[in-house]
Design goal:
This protein has about 600 residues and is an alpha+beta fold. Helix content is about 45%, strand content about 15%.
Length: about 600
């Protein structure tokens, strides 16, 4: 009977094993990419997402008596901030639903688990504007339905999880019958397979044989890229104050009220968590006020304060874990607006004193920073394409209202990286150009996580991003620009040229490993040939209405000499066309070509 329900520590152990199992099978999942291009990164994206989730879960799970609810919510927050690519975003939404289903539960049984999985399924479907069956959505829906049926028969958590694993495996196996593109490629859905591997690893832990990671320790979360860190440090202003606040017994945290308060005194506000534990992130010029409010509602831990102005970079304040409520022998009292400070508050008070003990000049309000009405955040996979986009946005760059986030095929930026770029962009309203279909969902999620107006222009590659920026009108608002820019991007005809990394069937046509394939923006096959130049010319012949202007962005797998020879061949095909060569430097794709 002791194993019929699980504790927070049990949840954490199962999740750690789930992450390790996904890590062990990440190449298997990447290899299931439908299109035979070298960017099959579903497994990589899912792994980065759940590693970030595990890192957060480990922080609250050091206490063996931790609630299952607290671990689940910490994992949900970590996944949300670390989500990469569509598969990562959907995985983060499944974890958010599970956290909601386990809210307030110290332990969970089979019915609790089934309810949490069902909540995860519903959450995932809500995150996708047009759900498609035969994907990870099908797998979580059918697995959660099987879990509910099992729990109604037997309330044992291990039994319910075992049925969940079996149902997930069967759901993955039938995805080709639901999605023609999978059937043509003779593969199952990669996201669904990744979810199955997560469930499988969790089950192994409940059976007493947890999967260990390749290093023998819990996988570490991916740190922000150097570019992302630099971008924040160069343009952020004021002080960044971050901490965890844990509710006092009998006094649950009111998340909407906390959010409202911090929005009234600061910027770039993020309040995430549940009534027992909340993570706070605020930018303003009074970190002492941010901390004072936190002390008035609960116990603080892992406090960090950082001067982001660059005027006092030597003042990097305390990074501390002064107090973790569940790890302490007793819950100490903390000063409020109506109570005097007590000696039990000294661990946190000492951290606060150190954090705000800066000079009067450093605490003085920072000089007013110019903010434009409109700004742009764009994603680019390489320095070359980033430079092209940056040149297009020169008036915005001058005022810090334009920002490039590195990422693209096989390296999708996380939700957290995009959110930090939005926070660091000095504009009242923002446009995000994802420049990749696999980044659109993460960008839309960012739009729902900030108090500023953010619109996503669903550009599918950087050539569409350039066309969209041509239509950018600084005198118009974000909504008006988003419509105009979307139309401009879609009016452009583009092709991506790469090499098949395996034999496959794409859009009904056989492709052999090593052949050059030419794809449209939606991964439809335009041409295939053993010779790159012949493949490009065949693809151009299929463009609607021909072209008068052609831009060839050559990538890291091509040389300038090769690109120029291609241009000569194109000019023979279309003597009156104007053809321009640009160094894109993009990985995986030899050429990105736009025609208009």
């Amino acid at each position: 009977m002791a194993r019929r329900s699980r504790s927070g520590a049990g949840f954490l152990a199962a999740f750690r094993s789930a992450v390790a199992n996904l890590e062990a099978h990440v190449e298997e999942i990447n290899a299931l990419n439908v299109f035979p291009v070298p960017d099959g990164d579903t497994g990589t994206n899912m792994l980065a997402t759940v590693r970030a989730a595990l890192e957060e879960a480990d922080r609250v799970g050091s206490n063996p008596d931790v609630d299952a609810s607290a671990v689940a919510h910490a994992a949900s927050y970590g996944a949300l901030m670390g989500a990469r690519g569509n598969s990562g975003v959907i995985t983060s939404q499944i974890l958010a639903g599970i956290a909601h289903g386990l809210a307030g539960k110290r332990r969970f049984n089979g019915l609790d688990l089934a309810h949490a999985l069902d909540a995860g399924s519903r959450n995932a479907y809500k995150a996708v504007a047009k759900p498609v069956e035969g994907t990870i959505l099908t797998v979580i829906r059918e697995a959660s339905a099987a879990a509910i049926a099992a729990a109604e028969r037997d309330n044992d958590a291990e039994y319910v999880l075992s049925v969940t694993v079996d149902a997930a495996e069967k759901a993955v196996a039938k995805t080709p019958s639901l999605l023609p593109v999978l059937r043509e490629a003779h593969v199952v859905d990669s996201g669904g397979q990744g979810l199955f591997r997560l469930f499988q690893g969790a089950l192994e832990a409940t059976r007493g044989r947890p999967v260990n990671s390749a290093t023998g320790t819990a996988p570490a979360g991916r740190a922000p890229t150097r570019e992302a860190v630099s971008a924040v440090e160069e343009t952020a202003y004021g002080y960044e104050t971050v901490y965890l606040v844990r509710a006092r017994e009998g006094h649950p945290l009111d998340i909407p009220a906390i959010q409202t308060h911090f929005e009234s005194i600061g910027d770039s506000v993020l309040v995430a968590g549940d009534p027992t534990l909340v993570k706070v992130h605020v930018h303003n010029d009074r970190p002492d006020a941010v901390i004072a409010y936190g002390l008035s509602i609960g116990a603080l831990s892992r406090i960090t304060i950082e001067n982001l102005d660059g005027q006092a970079t030597e003042v990097r304040e305390a990074k501390a874990a002064a107090f973790v409520g569940e790890a302490a022998p007793a819950v100490p009292s903390f000063p409020t607006a109506s109570s005097s400070a007590s000696t039990s508050a000294k661990p946190v008070a000492s951290v606060i004193a150190q954090a705000v003990a800066v000079s009067a000049a450093a605490l003085a309000p920072a000089a007013e920073v110019t903010r434009l009405p409109l700004g742009v955040v764009a994603v680019a996979p390489s320095d070359g394409l980033a430079a092209v986009l940056t040149d297009m946005a020169a008036p915005f760059r001058e005022y810090g209202a334009f920002r490039v986030v590195r990422g693209g095929q096989s390296a999708n930026p996380s939700t957290g990286e995009l959110l930090e770029a939005v926070r660091a962009t000095l504009a009242d309203e923002l446009l995000i150009l994802p420049n990749n279909p696999n980044v659109v969902l993460a960008a839309k999620q960012v739009a729902s996580m900030t108090d500023r107006v953010v619109h996503v222009v669903p550009t599918r590659n950087c050539a569409e991003g350039v066309a969209a920026l041509f239509e950018l009108d600084r005198t118009k608002d974000a909504a008006t620009n988003a419509k105009r820019m979307t139309e401009a991007g879609r009016a452009l005809q583009t092709m991506q040229v790469t090499e098949a990394v395996r034999d496959a069937t794409v859009t009904g046509k056989k492709v052999k490993k090593g052949q050059t394939i030419v794809l449209d923006p939606d991964d439809g096959l335009l041409a295939v040939d053993g010779d790159p130049q012949r493949a490009v010319l065949a693809g151009l012949a299929k463009l609607d209405g021909g072209f008068g202007l052609l831009t060839v962005y050559y990538g890291m797998d091509a040389t300038l000499d090769e690109a120029e020879r291609l241009v000569l061949a194109i000019r023979e095909l279309a003597p009156g066309a104007d053809v321009e060569v640009v160094h894109g430097g993009q990985p995986h794709y030899r050429y990105l070509i736009s025609a208009e």
